[in-house]
């Protein structure tokens, strides 16, 4: 299958007709096909959430385990009410954070096929803050189930180029809406448990939510190594091909030198050691090749992290050294992804299906 890329911003800025391309994308979705689209978090691989055959194509295209539920994307609150029971707290959170990078896990209504919810009686709902995503959902007039548009286990895509790399030939259309602004997937908040809990940390933190949920802390989330409450959390994610080692900022240079010596001792006299760090973390490495500047602050690091992890594959790195960040605020979400990339999270199951990832 030929994969077409539609350049949304070029069309938008040149005042070109947007109705025809979005009508075409919507027609593909209504016909049970997959369309990749931009959001403010990462790119999504979308299908009609109400069509089990279409949703099955998502799992196939990604190589994703079928017990890992999909987030359903909607364009207005009426769509949310059609799909889930909405308690008053959810209404408040929607008013405060939607459109935005917050997924709410709610009791699902029977119209939602179980394949969409990974077999669960709950559904994760989100209204994305990207005009192309909203246009697509509105044009289709359908809720769109969409996980990240990467092959399972690979770093999530934050550009149309990343999606093309993973999905070329597998899907008919990618809507190119530029670089994802946030760069990390949404915060997943479970409102179906007795005590609301963050299942996946994201740009919206416990500190942002505590005003609405007294007592909510980051510890309410799944502890490292704990029991998987969000099914997707038991799989290894974000992993580039090379081994990833996390280093405190001041340890990066000594670790780099030690690793270089170790490769040399093993007969590799010119190893490709990729270093992903802030400017301070790159101290001493001015002459080193294969350094990737993640940015100067945590929002920049979040935005660039998946691009950096994918780049280590492009250069065929032998080893990846990545800077460790303090686990507060946005640092929690960044470290969650880095720990998974470094496989410091719960080990993937050994059965064949379990080798698949998010
Ligand atoms: P992705 O869209 O690929 O970033 O993955 C979606 C994430 O949301 C996974 O970690 C899922 O486990 C989580 N998720 C989606 N729906 C639910 C749900 N009903 N219950 C718990 N977690 C969910
Ligand atoms: Mg994903």
Automatic annotation (TrEMBL):
A Pfam family this chain is assigned to: Sua5_yciO_yrdC
Question: Which is a Gene Ontology cellular component entry for this protein?
Answer: cytoplasm
Please classify the protein's predominant subcellular localization into one broad category.
Answer: cytoplasm
Locate the residues binding L-threonine.
Answer: 41, 68, 73, 122, 126, 146, 186
Q: What range does the record give for the signal peptide?
A: none
The listed locations are: Cytoplasm
Ranges in a coiled coil: none
Is Transferase given among the entry's keywords? yes
Reaction(s) this enzyme catalyzes, per UniProt: L-threonine + hydrogencarbonate + ATP = L-threonylcarbamoyladenylate + diphosphate + H2O
Gene3D superfamilies named in the record: DHBP synthase, Threonylcarbamoyl-AMP synthase, C-terminal domain
Q: What is its EC number?
A: 2.7.7.87
GO function term, MF aspect, one: L-threonylcarbamoyladenylate synthase
Q: Show where the YrdC-like domain sits.
A: 19-204
- Keywords annotated in UniProt: ATP-binding, Cytoplasm, Nucleotide-binding, Nucleotidyltransferase, Transferase, tRNA processing
Q: What does this protein do?
A: Required for the formation of a threonylcarbamoyl group on adenosine at position 37 (t(6)A37) in tRNAs that read codons beginning with adenine.
Q: What family is it from?
A: Belongs to the SUA5 family.
The molecule here is called: Threonylcarbamoyl-AMP synthase
Organism of this sequence: Candidatus Avidehalobacter gallistercoris
